[in-house]
Write a structure and sequence with these properties.
alpha/beta; 8-stranded mixed β-sheet; two-stranded antiparallel sheet; 11 helices; about 25% strand
């Protein structure tokens, strides 16, 4: 069974106002490219070629202008609208027709994951229920936190607990089997009147085969939805761009995957001309 990807990029970015008064949060720059490039690149590195981007009504045209239908990078991008902020889990309901009977990997557009050793392609292929990913954080009260027993077995995920038992946050990257739409449909809205992704995760923990992959400290993960974190990740990428092997460069990943020829990269270079993005693509071509 093949897999499809969803990127949820429908948030209004209230923590980033006034920057997001006119521009979608996920189109703000992280160093030399829009934030959403990083999430898209993560899915592409997992060899996901069919991707649904869910955004809000005001930003749809902007995403289409930036990414088009994905042909330039050897993938197929579709778009859907989330009319209101009804929760992350609604993405599976909105994407029902897109997903059909496939496995699904969902990534939040403001989650940046770099320099990790995860073999996402293999994890997706081997997934039997749900595959989740944890990362140690200093402020566990702000996240969905992994709760485990003395045998290190998964008990549940506690959403923003007052007394967290671990500091392992569940990040905005989720792999599910082809039943996830039905699970999302079965949920009741939370006190925030949202369909919570934590409720989906806990359903799988209770009723299905669920694995949690711990991402070690050598990786870099951050929720870039605040001014502070946006600056942190921008500085990280600017300092480590060369060592990280072209983070977020969609054409580079597409070429390495065998999805596009050099000519497609040259087309992007001509399109962006004197930009930093074009400069680094030229450097990549010279290294081949």
């Amino acid at each position: 069974m093949f897999s499809k990807g969803i990127i949820l990029a429908a948030g209004k970015g209230t923590r980033l106002r006034p920057m997001t008064n006119a521009v979608s949060k996920h189109l703000l720059n992280i160093y030399d490219k829009p934030m959403i490039f990083y999430a898209l690149n993560t899915l592409m590195q997992a060899y996901i070629r069919e991707i649904l981007i869910i955004t809000n009504p005001n930003d749809l045209v902007s995403y289409q202008n930036v990414l088009g239908n994905g042909e330039q990078i050897g993938i197929d991008i579709k778009y859907e609208i989330q009319e209101k902020p009804n929760g992350i889990a609604e993405a599976f309901i909105i994407g029902k027709e897109f997903l059909a009977s496939s496995k699904c990997i969902l990534m939040l557009g403001d989650n940046i994951l770099l320099n990790n050793n995860l073999n996402l392609r293999e994890i997706i292929q081997n997934n039997k229920g749900a595959s989740l990913f944890s990362y140690p954080v200093d402020n566990p009260k702000d996240f969905g936190i992994l709760k485990i027993n003395t045998k290190k077995e998964i008990i549940s995920i506690d959403e923003k607990p007052n007394n967290p038992e671990t500091n392992l946050a569940i990040i905005g990257l989720y792999v599910f089997d082809n039943n996830v739409t039905n699970v999302a449909k079965s949920l009741r809205p939370s006190k925030r009147n949202e369909l919570e992704i934590t409720d989906v995760n806990n359903f799988y923990i209770k009723n299905s085969n669920t694995k949690v992959y711990k991402i070690d400290g050598s990786a870099f993960w951050i929720d870039a939805g605040s001014v502070k974190n946006l600056n942190i990740v921008s500085k990280f990428v600017s300092k480590r761009q060369n060592k990280l092997s072209y983070p977020g460069y969609l054409e580079v990943t597409a070429f390495k995957n065998g999805w596009i020829e050099k000519s497609k990269i040259s087309n992007t270079i001509r399109k962006y001309k004197d930009s930093e993005y074009a400069f680094n693509l030229r450097k990549f071509l010279k290294q081949l």
